[in-house]
Amino acid sequence: MRILAITNQKGGVGKTTSAVNLSAALAKLDQRVLLIDLDPQGNATTGCGIVKTDALPTVYQLLIGDTTLGGAIVKTEFGFDILPANRELAGAEIELIELDGREQRLKDALATVADQYDYVLIDCPPALNMLTVNALVASQSVMIPMQCEYYALEGLSDLVETLRKVRGNLNPNLEIEGLLRTMYNAQNTLTQQVSDELMNHFGDKVYETIIPRNVRLAEAPSYGKPATAYDAASKGAQAYVALAEELLARHAKAAA
Ligand code: ATP
Ligand code: MG
Fold this sequence. Notes:
- With 256 residues, the protein is an alpha/beta fold.
- Helix content is 44%, strand content 17%.
- It has an 8-stranded mixed sheet with strand order 3-4-2-5-1-6-7-8, with helices on both faces.
- Helix 1 (15-28) crosses helix 12 (235-255) and helix 6 (105-111) packs parallel to helix 7.
- The chain is globular, with a radius of gyration of 17 Å.
- The mean pLDDT is 95.
- The structure holds adenosine-5'-triphosphate and magnesium ion.
């Protein structure tokens, strides 16, 4: 089982879109996938067609010890499972302070399903808070979606610093899995410049697959579907299938 945090403290860079569509694409490629919604906004949850009611057991109850992972996982229509979230999760930040092992509660819970999934993808909130720390401690690696804009690289240094701290005391083996260029517009020269700079800094950590700006990706969540189910032929859906293939090829190569 490979656990991957999809993270960037900058808001609106395509974390949730990537988490949902990559989950669906990996499932199409016969991988057993669990998607964890770790954001009180619950966008990944609704984006998979799950209705957020207050009665739903979520990742919040799991983190504070009120449910088991098995008690909260829901099957989606799209071939993968999800651990949902709703706005209750916003309270976890404070409640976790009181609890033992507050940084490893997600990691401990995931150990119970290690043989049930090939991939666990964690959709992080746009913050470097205790929820994100739980994701970083539970994960082997991080995927960083980013828009190739002027401030993108500046934000990256804060994230790289957080990863360094987490490696220092909580998860020494945490790696950068890859940087994903999202909402890409090849017509824009600034996009091209930032993209080049990214390649210079991070080399082959930058995925070859680029996610284009594509309206189908933005429309799909309002139908409660990944783009791969909403419009499989769209450029956006195809890009996430290509990303899933690139990811699997990289992992196969690393394992060989
Ligand atoms: P937050 O930080 O709030 O959690 P996020 O990083 O999860 O945001 P998303 O919610 O995935 O970002 O995307 C932000 C907005 O951009 C959404 O409205 C989404 O539908 C849209 N979007 C994401 N990727 C694309 C794309 N490749 N093309 C067009 N629209 C996109
Ligand atoms: Mg999000």
